Every structure is written in structure tokens, then in C-alpha cells.
């Protein structure tokens, strides 16, 4: 049964009138309490909606920041350039981030720390402080955590204390989602082939629609985002319907905050992604190998690993990491499907609070 706002208000008013007419009636009191509970559930549902991936993608481009924003595509997982968005770029399924609240585009510091703390206080007033010990500790002491971390692990935006840390994690850390991704290997590979070999987006462009070229010192690094910083890219999602449906079936995909991304990532022969840190330790980055030549490697926290086709690698990208493809032109590109999953030791209550604090555009 679908409840409208006016209908709920009428029921509450009627319940209150009934209670006044029957003050001594236990039934009237119970009905009033029941209707007040329905009203509360309605308000909570409106304010804290479920994952945007449930039920498919929107037919309209997703917006950032509530006003005038556009679909996001970024360099290096969110380092966007503030420049105007042309109509052509929007038609290609990507645009540059225009939000002044983008956590990877703004400087960290006292201003960001204050915004995080105010967001946490607002969350606690609306919902609860229960289970917020680590989140509160992390937000309160964020400046100290970010500057005092060892150089091997130094997230750029947010550090949650007391999480087990390691460069690489066992596939059992998120077994259900890893197995689902690996079962989806043929479908993801087929959709990659379709979008990768499509005609160029426009005259003079070497990239098909939806792809973004990222800056690298050597070679080429291209990404095709379905979700970027928690914001779905509707045009790209329509080009990859099976990948989009698979994302909606993942149990631990970070779908509702700025730390969540899902994309196809391509490294051409000779390409190098230089050493860098991710924004937070609350996630594990998962790479499903789609095409993996022999001369490719991922180094996280000083530990090297190689991708393999049809298998997932789970790693904590808040550790210093880099990737490279040292093969020749005959080897072809290295291709992975990348998705951000929750760290297994972040509790459900903490995930809900972090989704609220780091809502895109907040």
C-alpha cells in the first residue's frame, strides 16, 4: 500500500481526534501510537533512501550537489578538473566534476574536518550514536590521523581507526561478491568488447563514447565509469546493462557515498600509473581481470601481485600503490573491471553513518 504525505497527515489528525474523543479508551491510545509510528517510518524512509542501484538506473543523468551539477568522470579516482562541461561531453556519458564539495577536489584541513563533524552530529540527532565510537573517534581526530600515518598507508581524505590493515586481502574477505564478480566474467568481458570497439565519440577523438583518458607519464590509461564517487553515470550504465544489474546484486558495493566507484580500466602497453594513495581505508578495491598480458603488475604497500583473467584481486588502496604494463604492442591492453567494496570490518551501523556523512554533494 502506497502512503501519500497528505493521507498520512489526515490519518494522524483523525487518530488524534479519536484519542480526544476517547481519552479513557486503551484502543484509541494504541491507534494513535500506531499512526505516529507510521508517520515516523514515512519520514525516515524519505530522508534515508535505499541504494540507487536497486531497481535499475534512472533515465535521467545523475546529478551532483543538488544544483547545476553533472555526471562525474575523473582522473585518478576522482581528481577532477573544474572546467565547463560541453554538450558533446555530456552526450559521451561523462563530464568534469563541478561540485565544490567534492572530497577529492577540495583541500583537506580544518574546514573539511568541521564539515565531517557537523555531518556526524546531524546523523546522530536523526538516528543514533549507538555504534558510532570509531566513526566519532576518526572524525574528531582526523587531522592527526592523516598527518601521523606511516608513509606506506596514508589515506588522503578519511581514516577509520582500529581497522585491520594489510595491502592485500584474501578473496574470503568478501566471498559472496568476489564469487559473483567471477561468475560474471564472460558477461563483463563481452560488454567491455562492445564499448571498447565502438566508433569514436566524435571526429578527431580516439576514444569511443563514455571513455575517459587519464594522465600518465607513459602509455595510456583509460576508464569507463558506471559509478563515480557514488554517482551513477546513466548513459554509461545503459551501454552496460548486465554489468549494471550485477552491481545491484553485490552485497558490499559502496553505492551511496563518494568512496564508491565501478569502472572498466584499461592500461595500454608501456603504461605506468605512478605511486599514489586512495582516499580512505574503509573500502577494499576489487579488480576482476578481463584481459591480462604477462608483463603487467600491481604493487601495493611494496608487495607485487599479478592479475589473472577471471579472478579477483582485493587490496586496500589507502596503501601506496602503482600499476604498470611493460609488454609490447603485440600483447594488447591490460583490462580489469574495478569495483569498491566495504572493508569487512566496517560494521553495518558505521556503513550507514559513513553513507550519510559522505553523501555525494554534501
UniProtKB/TrEMBL annotation:
It is found in: Membrane. Residues 49-85 are annotated as: Disordered. SUPFAM superfamilies: Clavaminate synthase-like. InterPro entries: Asp/Arg/Pro-Hydrxlase, Asp/Asn_beta-hydroxylase, IPNS-like_sf. GO terms for molecular function: dioxygenase activity. Residues 213-344 form the Aspartyl/asparaginy/proline hydroxylase domain. Its main location: membrane. This is Aspartate beta-hydroxylase domain-containing protein 2.
Amino acid at each position: 500500500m502506497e502512503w501519500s504525505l497528505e493521507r498520512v497527515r489526515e490519518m494522524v489528525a483523525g487518530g488524534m481526534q479519536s484519542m480526544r474523543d476517547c481519552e479513557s479508551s486503551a484502543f484509541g491510545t494504541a491507534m494513535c501510537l500506531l499512526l505516529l509510528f507510521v508517520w515516523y517510518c514515512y519520514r525516515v524512509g524519505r530522508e534515508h533512501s535505499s541504494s540507487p542501484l536497486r531497481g535499475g538506473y534512472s533515465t535521467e543523468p545523475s546529478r551532483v550537489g543538488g544544483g547545476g551539477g553533472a555526471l562525474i568522470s575523473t582522473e585518478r579516482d576522482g581528481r577532477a578538473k573544474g572546467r565547463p562541461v560541453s554538450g558533446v561531453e555530456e552526450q559521451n556519458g561523462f563530464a568534469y566534476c563541478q561540485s565544490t564539495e567534492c572530497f577529492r577536489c577540495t583541500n583537506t584541513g580544518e574546514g573539511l574536518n568541521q564539515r565531517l563533524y557537523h555531518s556526524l552530529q546531524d546523523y546522530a540527532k536523526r538516528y543514533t550514536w549507538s555504534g558510532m565510537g570509531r566513526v566519532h573517534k576518526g572524525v574528531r581526530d582526523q587531522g592527526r590521523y592523516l598527518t601521523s600515518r606511516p608513509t606506506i598507508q596514508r589515506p588522503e581524505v578519511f581514516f577509520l581507526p582500529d581497522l585491520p590493515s594489510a595491502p592485500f586481502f584474501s578473496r574470503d574477505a568478501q566471498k559472496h561478491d568476489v564469487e559473483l564478480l567471477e561468475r560474471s566474467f564472460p558477461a563483463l568481458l563481452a560488454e567491455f568488447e562492445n564499448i571498447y570497439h565502438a566508433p569514436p565519440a566524435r571526429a578527431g577523438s580516439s576514444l569511443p563514447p563514455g571513455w575517459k583518458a587519464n594522465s600518465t607519464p607513459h602509455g595510456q590509461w583509460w576508464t569507463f565509469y558506471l559509478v563515480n564517487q557514488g554517482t551513477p553515470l546513466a548513459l554509461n550504465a545503459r551501454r552496460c546493462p548486465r554489468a549494471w544489474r550485477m552491481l545491484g546484486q553485490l552485497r558490499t558495493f559502496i553505492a551511496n557515498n563518494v568512496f564508491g566507484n565501478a569502472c572498466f580500466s584499461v592500461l595500454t602497453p608501456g603504461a605506468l600509473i605512478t605511486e599514489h594513495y586512495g582516499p580512505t581505508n574503509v573500502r577494499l578495491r576489487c579488480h576482476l581481470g578481463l584481459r591480462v598480458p604477462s608483463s603487467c603488475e600491481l604493487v601495493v604497500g611494496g608487495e607485487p601481485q599479478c592479475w589473472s583473467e577471471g579472478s579477483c584481486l582485493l587490496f586496500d588502496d589507502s596503501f601506496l600503490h602503482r600499476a604498470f604494463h611493460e609488454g609490447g604492442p603485440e600483447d594488447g591492453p591490460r583490462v580489469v573491471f574495478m569495483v569498491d567494496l566495504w572493508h569487512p570490518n566496517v560494521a553495518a551501523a558505521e556503513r550507514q553513518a559513513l553513507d550519510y556523512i559522505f553523501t555525494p554533494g554534501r
